[in-house]
Every structure is written in structure tokens, then in C-alpha cells.
Amino acid sequence: MEVRKFHFSNREKRSPIKIHYKDLEPYQKKRLWVSLGLIITIFTLYLIVTCTFLNQNRSNQTTTWEKHLSSDPVLMAEVEKRATASNATPVSVGTFVGNIPSLSIKDSSFKMYLWIWFRWNGDDALDPMNHFRIYKGSYDKLDVVKDEVVGEEHYQLVRTTVTVNRTFDTTRFPLSSHQMYTYIESSYPVTRMVYVADTSKGGESTISDNIDISGYNVMNHDTAVTAYQYESDHGDPSKDGDIINSEFLTAVMVNRASFGTYIRCFIALVGTITWVLITLFICTYHRVDPLAMIPAALFGTVTNIMVGANLLPEAIDTGLLEFVNFFGIAILLAGAIAIININRVRNKYETYEFAGYYGRAMLITLTAFTIIGNFLLPFFAYIWW
């Protein structure tokens, strides 16, 4: 009977006794609200700042897109002036985007399979298909599909794969959208030839419906005629002043097709956060000190950061990848501090009931912020429409 009585008493001692907020002492309420106030304030401010930043970057995609497709009116007026004065030949240009074989954020480049056509009247010596270059890029050997003259109209059709060097915006990676701009720049100055968009029936620039880009969907496609002004005559004695070349822009915007890459980047972080919440639960309800389990979670968090970093170039924009990882580390540290406070209350003050109440409050608060934060951050980073 003595053994059974002792065992029953030990169980009673270890079972947490639930108390209500009204039963807490003033100093206990103060300790509780200081801890809750710090957590709520810090995490709320962090989420407001980061979500606002991500949302602004997402909204700027439309502005950036429109900016690239618009031409400088002053420059285009100068183009028209020079072209008119020298009686330059207008050449109708169009493109068909057949495929985008690769888009590499890490290598800062993309490839685009293009059909390019040129139509013009007069100037038999003009050969636009062999007198263009790709701005900030290159193209493979041209496959000449057609080169003919019908009446007075010249027609040239070529196909090739272009490779363009472009530094992609990684602010919202791994949920970011990307814009690819291919500038076909004439080798002739605008005093000899100017590009105009082909608006003839059946001649409008289009994009294939069967484009397959791994991990992305095509959001938008457009073209525009622009110009590039070199602030030099390249030492050419036949030129007087700067050189302006006509350009034809083919633009494609893509968006992440799914959350697969996002899950890949943060699945380990979710595991470590879950581990920390479990240790806090154990400390709260079983009066066990699991603080030694925290370093393993910290190691997992640091390892998780490298998963996303390996998919990006060395120079990246601060954004979603860092925000989610910082948030996870903050949850981990808050959980560790909560466990330390629970142990301190139990060991120094021997107020087991308050320790349990404090632990439950911390567990509920951190769990709530974990769910809210990991919902809001990707929500404000991804383009849903």
C-alpha cells in the first residue's frame, strides 16, 4: 500500500494543473504579457514589412513590363528625323516564338527558339536576315526557310535559337515571375534601314500555344519597335556623331506553374519548426527540459538555407527566400527562449501551474504565427491572376 500510495502521489505531482488567467499573480501576468507583447509586436511588424515589400515587387512587374515595351519618344523622334532625311528603307519585322528551351536563373540566361521574318520594298542590296544581332546575346546558325522576291516585295524568313544573358529578379524566388526580352538589333543605322512592326493579315507576331517551360507557364507575350543610341561613332570616319540602330523587341513573361520549387526549398525548414514546437509542447505538458534538442533544429534550418541558395547566382536580391528563412529562425529562437523561461519559472520559483500556463500561451502564439507567416509570405509573393 505504501508503494502504491507513493506512486499515485508522484503522478499527481507530475500532472499539470490548469489555472485560469484570473488566478495569476500580478508579477506572473506582467511576465506573461511582456513575453507575448514582444513576440506579437516583433512578428507582426516583420510580417507587415516583408509582405508589403513582396507585394510591391509583385506589383512592379506590370510597370517593368510596360516600361520595356514603350519607346523613348525623344529618341524615336530622332529616329524618324534621320530616317526621313536619308530616305531610309522601312522593313516590316515579325517573330514567332516556337519554344523556350531553357530558363536558368543561376546562369542568368535563357534560350528562345524564334522564327524571324523581314519584308520590304526596293533596295535590292538590303539583306536584313544577315545584318542583325541579338542585344546582350547571340544566336545559332541561321536556318533560312525562305528568301524570295514577289513583284517588288522582298521576303526573308529564318529560324534560329537565340541565347540572351539576363539577370533575373530573384526577390520573390522561388515563386517569382520572370520577363524575357529578346532585342533583334539591326546592323544598319537608321539612316539606312528602320524596323516597323508587321501588322499585315497573318503577319502579326505570335507565340506558340505548345510552349513547354519546365516549372513555368506563359503569362504574357508582346512585341515592340524600339531603338538603341550609341554614344559614339565607334571611330568610324564615315560617321558624324553617335549611331542609332533600330530594334525589334520580343517579350515573354512567365510565372511559376506550381509550388513545387517552393516546397523543395522550405520542406526542411517546416520540419525544424515543427520540431521546435514539439519540444515546446513536451516542456509545457511533461515537465521535461528538451533544450538540448534545439541545436539539431538550428542545424536543420541552416542546412535548409543552402537548398535555395544553390539554385541562385552568387549575387541575389533579398526577398522571399531570406524572409521565410529568417522567419523560421525567429520562431526557433522564440521557442528556445520560451523553454528557458518555463524552466526558470519551475526551477527558481517552483510555480509549476504558472509554468504550464505560460508554456501553453507561448505554444499557441508561436503555432499561430507559424501558420499565419507561412501563409502570408507566399501569398503576397505569388502572382495569382
UniProtKB/TrEMBL annotation:
Q: Transmembrane helix among the record's keywords?
A: yes
Identify the keywords attached in UniProt to this record, alphabetized.
Membrane, Transmembrane, Transmembrane helix
Q: Which residues cross the membrane?
A: 32-49, 261-284, 291-311, 323-342, 363-384
Protein's name according to its UniProt entry:
Uncharacterized protein
Native source species:
Eubacterium aggregans
